[in-house]
Amino acid sequence: MNSKKLLYLSITSSVIVIFYMFFQWRIVDIITPFLLLPVLLIVFGFFIYVSVRAIIALFKNKEWKPIVIQVITFLLLFFIPFNQIVLVMDFKLNKSKRELVAKMIQSGELKPNISYDAPLIDLPKKYEHLSSGEGEIVVEKTDAGYNILFYTYRGILDNFSGFVYTSNVQKPSKKSFNGDFKEIDKMDKNWYFVGSY
Questions:
Q1: Tell me, what's the pLDDT at 44?
Q2: Interval 134-150 mean pLDDT
Q3: Across residues 18-44, what is the average pLDDT?
Q4: Which of 20, 68, 148, 190 is the most buried if burial means most Cβ atoms within 10 Å?
């Protein structure tokens, strides 16, 4: 493989991996968790293949640029918290719209509307992007008000994560939304990020 082609492959594989890391949860939302493994194998398999070719080129032809790109990409993957960056961006960009939905629920304008699951609300089209998994949110009544779960990841069974709006300032319990929360992080007043896995 000539050095120019390997350099282009190195850049391409690195861009694809970083793109995947930024958009992995949107990709999962589109293709479902069942098809995630083949996508991971393709994306990271290509990256590993190019990395091996870059190592060979380094020792065989003293071509260092491709391996430097691969190493920098690997270090970025190791040190940059892509998930945290994406979650914070999602939270900040959509907070006001999610609060508007919460007010619509509080006023009775939005009510549970899915017959097979009483606490679910299928959001109107213009608000679907606020919750992964086809724009559904979960409303849970509590003694002190209610909690609303906007999914960021809607996995299988009790494997999910999302932003919870609480009508009071009380932290959601570990068993809220029939989950088993391993992670409950305060994001802002009345807002928490939760993860059940």
A1: 97
A2: 88
A3: 90
A4: 148
